[in-house]
Design brief:
With about 525 residues, the protein is mainly α. Helices cover about 75% and strands about 5% of the residues. The chain has one domain. β1 (about 75-85) and β2 (about 90-95) form a beta hairpin. It starts with 16 loop residues before the first helix and ends with a helix.
Length: about 525
């Protein structure tokens, strides 16, 4: 049974659009090193080159997914396949469907805005902006790769820029945070590699092509072991409890633009990979593990929310909230129906925009106050009324206020759980009840943070800080407007991926029917 989404007739293209999206930032990174060393001290030159290449890349993304990509099709489109290293079966194989399209758009937007947010970087600007460009290429390649080894190389490549961006431009404990990040993610990558190569060797012929791997329809204990390897490997990046502890440290020490990338894009790689590998390639194992994913998702939601209360650092509190919110992605994936997976996709898009906005706004008042300690802040609403308005709006979006994207994504996940009749009524009711506790906790820890930071006794040292400038206002609005637009008109996002999530759900239903028929015959 071919469990993978087929290549459609719309896949043919006279131009390598996807390669252009992947390679353009990398070309910009190479050109960066042509800047003479005597010119490197002029930080505006590397910055402008990076912004120009990322802006051009984002325009190509908008062109491809606005004019060329057919949202009504559920298969791979714009497929590119070039034999790269035949000796090991590696191909430059790219393709896009509804699972990857919205995340490529999100990645292009967040990376461009993070480069603009890095306006004041003066320490090693050439290296800093070249790393951002390499990161942009690696991110796109993760979402577009249709060859396992190519996917894995991109997955590993994006770790290096993030490690260096934290280790060089981070806070006082930056080396500890960067080392913890690389150790967690690199060790998890071993499980991904082992699981992927095991699948590649399991058929009659060795293959790294994802379509062919899915056609193998791995089952039994072998499929379960591969599923667990992928779950742990991708779960570190999502992150799932208890593999999440690198995240608060990384966010706490990274500068705001890097935190925007971490929360806005990197966490989404984990959710995307679970859908691409665990659900699409290993549907039989996923049907077995779906209840476990829901339980882990509930733990994420509650634990992340409770842990946020204990944080007196603004960025660490937002980081813990990310752990909580990504639990809804696990709930949606575990729902094993189109509504649940649609909610999971929408939650990734929504959280990417909201978390990036919150970390950006946090970075703006850190530049002005030089502190992220909640007890050392107070009264900022009178000094920074526009900043307060942006931060409050982001917080309201994060706590799933109706009319914002977070509300639509989380309610869709809940509806996906309740409409899944393969679970018992008790299991569904318990899941909704416990997850709802997380919804109650979220406004408490977010609004209490707003109250302590922006109200209360004014700290004299913070009485003369400056308000947001036009550049910062533009970045904030660019993140918040889509959040509101999706909240009022969710089809803006849902139309991009609905065909693919429906196809995934149909495949899971078919797999379930086949498994039941086999069990009946054996009985």
């Amino acid at each position: 049974m071919d469990a993978y989404l087929p290549i459609t007739a719309a896949s043919q293209s006279s131009f390598s659009w996807l390669s252009a999206i992947v390679l353009l930032p990398a070309i910009g990174a190479l050109l960066m090193f042509l800047i003479p060393e005597k010119e490197e001290s002029n930080s505006y030159l590397p910055r402008n080159i990076a912004i120009a290449f990322l802006a051009a890349d984002f325009l190509i993304i908008l062109l491809v997914f606005g004019r060329i990509f057919d949202k009504s099709l559920d298969g791979l489109q714009l497929v590119e396949r070039i034999s790269w290293l035949p000796a090991i079966g590696l191909e430059w194989s790219l393709g896009v469907d509804g699972l990857s399209a919205p995340l490529v758009i999100l990645s292009g937007l967040i990376t461009l805005l993070s480069a603009i947010a890095s306006w004041k970087i003066t320490n090693k600007p050439r290296l800093y902006f070249s790393l951002l460009l390499v990161q942009a290429s690696a991110q796109s390649l993760v979402f577009l790769s249709q060859d396992f080894l190519l996917f894995f190389l991109a997955w590993e490549l994006e770790l290096v820029p993030v490690y260096l961006l934290i280790a060089i431009w981070g806070g006082k404990r930056r080396l500890y945070a960067a080392t913890k990040f690389i150790l967690y993610t690199a060790l998890a990558s071993l499980l991904i590699l082992i699981s992927g190569l095991a699948l590649a060797l399991s058929g009659d012929e060795f293959t790294l092509n994802l379509s062919q791997l899915a056609a193998l329809s791995p089952s039994g204990i072998f499929g379960v072991l591969c599923y667990l390897g992928f779950l742990i490997g991708f779960g570190v990046k999502l992150p799932i409890f208890p593999l999440h502890t690198w995240l608060p440290d990384a966010h706490g020490e990274a500068n705001a633009p890097v935190s925007m990338l971490l929360a806005g894009v990197l966490l989404k790689m984990g959710g995307y990979a679970l859908l691409r590998f665990n659900v699409q390639i290993l549907p039989e194992a996923h049907l077995k593990f779906a209840p476990a994913l829901i339980i882990i998702g509930i733990v994420n939601i509650i634990y992340g929310a409770l842990n946020a209360f204990a944080q007196d650092n603004v960025k660490r509190r937002i980081a813990c909230s990310s752990v909580s919110h990504m639990g809804f992605v696990l709930l949606g994936i575990g729902a094993i129906n189109s509504l649940g997976m649609s909610g999971a996709m929408l939650q990734m898009i929504s959280h990417g925009l909201i978390a990036a906005a919150m970390f950006f706004i946090t970075g703006t008042f850190y530049e002005r106050t030089n502190t992220l300690s909640i007890p050392n802040m107070g009264g900022l609403a009178k000094v920074l009324p526009i900043t307060f308005a942006f931060f409050l709006t982001s917080s309201l979006a994060s706590l799933a206020l109706p009319g914002m994207s977070g509300f639509v994504s989380e309610i869709t996940v809940f509806l996906g759980i309740t409409s899944q009749d393969t679970f018992t009524s008790l299991f569904r009711a318990t899941t909704i009840l416990i997850a709802a506790i997380g919804l109650v906790l979220t406004p408490i820890y977010l609004l209490s943070m707003c109250r302590r930071v922006f109200f209360g006794p004014r700290i004299p040292a913070l009485a003369m800080v400056e308000e947001l400038n036009y550049r910062e206002l533009t970045i904030g609005l660019t993140l918040l407007i889509p959040t509101l637009a999706i909240g009022f008109w969710p089809r803006l996002a849902i139309d991009l991926y609905e065909s693919s999530t429906n196809a995934l759900a149909q495949n899971l239903i078919l797999e379930s029917v086949v498994s039941k028929a086999i069990n009946l015959n054996i009985g």
